TrEMBL record, chains A, B:
Phylogenetic classification of the source organism: Bacteria, Bacillati, Bacillota, Bacilli, Bacillales
Domain of life of the native organism: Bacteria
Domain Non-reducing end beta-L-arabinofuranosidase-like GH127 middle: 414-510
Domain Non-reducing end beta-L-arabinofuranosidase-like GH127 C-terminal: 512-606
A family per Pfam: Glyco_hydro127C
Ranges where the Non-reducing end beta-L-arabinofuranosidase-like GH127 catalytic domain occurs: 25-404
GO aspect biological process, one term: carbohydrate metabolic process
Keyword Hydrolase belongs to the record: yes
Organism of provenance: Paenibacillus silvestris
Protein name (Swiss-Prot/TrEMBL): Glycoside hydrolase family 127 protein
InterPro entries, alphabetized: 6-hairpin_glycosidase_sf, Beta-AFase-like, Beta-AFase-like_GH127_C, Beta-AFase-like_GH127_cat, Beta-AFase-like_GH127_middle
GO molecular function, one term: hydrolase activity
Keywords from the named record: Hydrolase
Length: 618, 618
């Protein structure tokens, strides 16, 4: 494994935990390796092909003067190319692929060539409106820059190649020269640059990058915003999260992806500065989105109109917008919150998104995508091969191979296991190296074996996340039941002088669970959703043709959870066994819907309740 | 195995299912064999010794003129001796014991010798008030007769010896000569004779016995009752279930054991006659007791004052009376309701009582007993070796070895498996013999293997009860998942041409479940009980000394269910793991409480709730 970035394993000043980057985590997991393989073999190539066919790549060649022609597509299309490159970078870590790397290098050559002398890089303006650069805050120039920076760092970490990183640094310096204290005002119309600049600081140790990120955040809420988004009377500044200084925000507003990218950037800045205004705002915003504005799948942003938030508890099922991008954004933010606070509740959200809202964004075959992820459909909603605005396909393309980032976190004397994904983690605790090997069939089975493969002399703690859905578990160390483990922020904490060969067995029980929505989510009144482990289930018409519309969960309904290797590439499917045709049905994981014949789907099922029983079992 | 009673495998005219008696069910079960062994080796001998030391046995010798002396003890004490003999009979089926049988024979000789010429048999009246026979309806003469009949039939079925049966028949004929249409009125002050007379009919095929049982039931509610119970102004006729004709009853009243013995007798008569008045009343009474008047342990009768029922939802924990006898009575009644209707909901109650309310009645050592079974104590309530009124010790002594009666039921084309207890059932389906072998570690583990050891040519159905607590199960036949089994009255129904060697694997998932009481059970407001499989748990002070009084279940509490072979003869104990000392505790099965150092105990624990979450997992 390549390991170029030593800084990223260091804790930021106000973080409880340090990031363990994907470069140090090798994934060899029945569930995720299959998804990563589909991603590398199909999705990334499909995205590259689409980027070629839609002019997204040739826009760079044109801007570089290497070929003739006008700009094609939408002004922010460069970002899709960057995101595909970022996905390629992550995927090369787990599975080297010379052909794919060569193709990426070729694209990178175009990108570097397209960069202007002063560092400017956005092919739309270079080709179509060279005089209008940095005049409209909604034209995503800094958004594209952010994605370039993220792609460049990932590609450098994965391959050691600096060409894209150098271009990114040059562009960052260009932006840093234009904007900042006593320079021009700029309210980013599509946040992304903030978290990217912090990443660039971590890679380069140049403090001015994170300070510029801080500045970008502080620009908001002072009336500096100008552009299309601000002018729409029905949206106003709240759409762009520019209605208040960020430290004064308490409720989520506007475009969901932009909002959550911003919260992620705020979390980075809080981790660097300890800014109490940011810490307070983040806690309030997190509570507001997670406890009042999130679908059970982790989806956020119910409205198609603003691609974003509406009002608390407004979570309609059929018209749910729930961009795939927004679910991935929730992962980016919650991962940072986990590092900041060391609390497992944020990793619970990462898990919820990983196995549901985000993963649903790509077909099992890897070449079809959802932009919008409703929780119910009349049969008219389907994955497609590409979108004019293809942020979501390229978002999932960069997310899936990056999951190594979310497995572990560390500090001077603790290793935190946030996600149960089989493979090997090469970790550093204090000054000593520790290698852990996870074996598991998660999420289908809750048994996880963690073996210490290498360890130093100094004792340290191993913290294992007990997911919020898990009400029952058993824990053994070297075969011995740990009946009195201490719980700490949702983790069981095992303090030992760990030695190579020691083994932990954690069994997370996974009954089918009924989930009820808050009574103010009026569309789910009288309805129940089914979950097993982290997986949210849905029913599809094709499995339940006889009584699809009448399907209910009744007090008599019992569930058989059966792993079927030949169904949907191998899933645990739920057979509901009731006393009548209506409460006898089959449910599949939500993330696998619309992978077979098209038809109706729903997550929330009506529930037939009896009169209050003397004893209600939960 | 002895098999004397062919009638008892035949369905009564209005039954869905026929009884499979204990004589055809060999128990070899980790859980129950240990309890049965303690019963045989300790409990039965302890009861015999107590009966000897308290004059209960010598009363018979005195009445027979074989020794001098006055009647000792309470007027109904004969019944305890009969119940011990019944227990010995059942226990000899699973584990022959020549010494025990010889002792029983000796006692039987006394009993037979004590019987008067005309068949009368109650040593109290023979010795103390020979002129007052059959003058006070509250003196339990027909109650004792009922227990003699039950003991006699069991002893005959187990050993083939008729002496006690002949005495029982002679007594039944004596009663039949005195009472019945156009003879004397008699309202039984402690019901029991009714179900016993039906048993005697099944054994002898003499129809007049069940008709006399019917007559006894019909006597009630017409103002014929006379005696102490009726005269107490604060009780009235409702105490004796004599306030209404039985067919008009809808709510449970009065003395719990007497009431439920009566319901059992009514169920027998309904199974023989199809009397719609009885069928309706039984449904109403069952609903009233199970859905409004039963503790989570299956205990019934909250009040010490009347040893019985009060008002709906009045279920206090500390002052809960819950006689052990009443829990066993619930088993007798619910078993009959199961045979009558073929519905598993009655077998669910049998299970609830078997593993909780009834089983708590005897110590693990087998020589200490609870009469009263509260759900919470300040540390003052303990098992003792004997009571002046020792109905409960002798009740548990006859119940535990009889559990073979509750495992299977059959009809012309179905075998029903009601209880998961390892061992061998020799069954008759239509005209063919079927042998089933169950293997399981129930109730600690939900995996049950059922192998067909012998089978005939004709296809039949196997019905497996899915307990009401079980929300998740898997089912295989010969290794093949049965994903679409049909459910019928709470059973999965497997229709096959069963052949020797075929094997069913049923896995009943057993997470720790939180149970909430109906809001009208005011004492349990804000409280939760813990259950795993059929086992209700409690906390004892000795396991939780540090924070016993502060113990709560919080939203952070997770559970580890751990089998500990050296704890309480081997139990699954629950380790609650929370974030603080108050939500970190250990719970043990309710039936095992007060088997170690004495102290406080409670079943219902306060629950710390958070604000309504966006998604509530159940």
């Amino acid at each position: 494994m390549v390991q170029n970035n030593s800084l990223s394993t260091h804790k930021l000043p106000f973080q409880q935990l340090a990031q363990v980057p994907f470069t140090q985590v090798f994934i060899e997991d029945k569930f995720w390796s299959a998804r990563m393989k589909a991603l590398q073999k199909t999705t990334l190539k499909a995205c590259l092909t689409q980027c070629e066919q839609t002019g997204r790549i040739s826009n760079f060649a044109k801007a570089a003067g290497l070929m003739d022609g006008e700009f094609e597509g939408i002004f922010y299309n460069d970002s899709d190319v960057y995101k595909v490159l970022e996905g390629i970078a992550y995927s090369l870590m787990n599975e080297p692929d010379a052909e794919l790397e060569a193709e990426a290098d070729k694209v990178i050559d175009f990108i570097a060539a397209a960069q202007e002398e002063d560092g400017y890089l956005q092919t739309y303006f270079t080709l179509a409106e060279p005089d209008k650069k940095w005049t409209d805050m909604n034209k995503h120039e800094e958004y594209c820059a952010g994605h370039l920076i993220e792609a460049a760092i990932a590609y450098y970490q994965a391959t050691g190649k600096r060409k894209l990183l150098d271009a990114a640094i040059k562009l960052a310096d260009h932006i840093d020269a234009l904007f900042g204290p006593n320079k021009r005002h700029w309210v980013s119309g599509h946040q992304e640059i903030e978290l990217a600049l912090v990443k660039l600081y971590l890679e380069t140790k140049e403090e001015r990058y994170w300070k510029l990120a801080y500045w970008f955040l502080e620009e908001r809420g002072h009336g500096h915003g100008v552009g299309y988004s601000w002018d729409r009377a029905d949206w106003g500044a709240a759409y762009s999260q520019d209605h208040l200084p960020v430290r004064e925000m308490s409720t989520v507003t506007g475009h969901a992806v932009r909002a959550v990218y911003m919260y992620a950037g705020m979390t980075d800045v809080a981790a660097l500065t300890g800014d109490e205004g940011y810490l307070g705002a983040l806690d309030r915003l997190w509570d507001n989105v997670v406890n009042k504005n999130m679908y059970i799948t982790g989806g956020i942003g119910p409205s198609k109109d603003n691609e974003g938030f509406t009002s608390d508890y407004d979570l309609p099922n059929q018209s749910a917008y729930c961009e795939t991008c927004a679910s991935v954004a929730m992962i980016l933010w919650n991962h940072r919150m986990n590092l900041l606070h060391g609390d497992s509740k944020y990793a619970d959200i990462v898990e919820r998104e990983m196995y549901n809202g985000a993963l649903a964004g790509v077909s099992l075959s890897g070449d079809k995508f959802f932009y919008v992820n409703p929780l119910e459909t009349d049969g008219s909603h389907h994955r497609v091969e590409w979108y004019n605005c293809s942020c979501c396909p390229t978002q999932i393309a960069r997310f899936i191979p990056s999951i190594g980032n979310y497995v572990y976190a560390v500090n001077e004397r603790q290793i935190v296991i946030n996600q149960y994904i089989a493979g090997i983690g090469s970790l550093q605790v204090g000054n000593e190296g520790v290698t852990l090997k996870q074996e598991t069939n998660f999420p289908w089975d809750g048994t996880v074996t963690i073996r210490v493969e290498e360890s130093g002399e100094t004792p340290y703690d191993l913290l294992l996340r007990i997911p919020s859905w898990c009400k029952n578990f058993t824990l053994k160390v070297d075969g011995e039941a740990q009946t009195h483990p201490s719980m700490h922020n949702g983790y069981v904490k095992l303090c030992r002088a760990w030695k190579a060969g020691m083994e932990i067995e954690l069994v997370l029980e996974m009954p089918v669970q009924k989930v009820y929505a808050h009574p103010l989510v009026i569309e789910n009144t009288g309805k129940v959703a089914l979950q097993r482990g982290p997986i949210v289930y849905c029913i599809e018409e094709m499995d339940n043709a006889a009584a699809y519309e009448q399907t209910i969960v009744s007090p008599h309904t019992r569930f058989q959870a059966v792993f079927e290797p030949n169904l949907l590439e191998g899933v645990v499917t739920l057979y509901a066994v009731g006393g009548s045709p209506t409460d006898t049905f089959q449910a599949i994981p939500y993330y696998t819907w619309d992978n077979r014949d098209s038809g109706k789907m729903r997550v929330w099922l009506p529930e037939a309740k009896v009169e209050a029983a003397l004893y209600e079992i939960q």
